[in-house]
Amino acid sequence: MATTVGTDLSHDRISKLADSTLVTILSSLRMDEAARCTILSSRWRHLFPSTLLNFRAFTRSGRNVVEAVTSILAAYPDEPVRSFRTGMLFFRPQDKAAVDVWLRDLSNRGIEELSLWFGFDEKRRPIPESLFACSSLRRLNVINGTFPDTTEAAAASLSCLTKIELSDVNISENSLNSLLSQCSAGAPDHQIHRQVGQPPSPVSEPQGPAQHQRLREALHR
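User: That's the sequence. What structure does it adopt?
Assistant: Structure tokens below.
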């Protein structure tokens, strides 16, 4: 009796998927995995820029991410980026200005969610002041960084923020006050989390100095 096992192997079912479905698949992969997939066909290469809308700057090893991110942003200067998330970042001496370059670039692409995780091979890497150029930012997550000095004028540029997560982050009392006073005006549901070695407990952002004091106390516990 003739066998029919394997008769469907000649059919390329992936190619029958809609572009939007393929972009969703690519967007769920690490940056290096998505790049490798573009080798499969010209169609995948054509779709790769669309994955930058939700840019996942991760690789398996965590090394060479900084250089790769800089190259990808430069290669696709007109693609919007709504969400930008990194894995643990390791910097070479020549990468010193990389994050500043990224933030200036992302500020022109409608960035709404930003997550920066600085590697623990250096303690609390400074966050560039170009962060304040990201006026469309709604969510900010930073791990192992140092927040830039924040005046009320600078914080006003981040008035769209609705959620901040800071883990192992240095931030001065004055900067925290400025950030809270400006963000709370435009974001009544604003939340601040602090996590150092354990999951954070959310702290709601009601109005008034007494509530702001409780937020400060929660951050400095």
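The helical segments are 19-27, 31-37, 42-47, 65-75, 98-106, 152-156, 173-186, 209-219.
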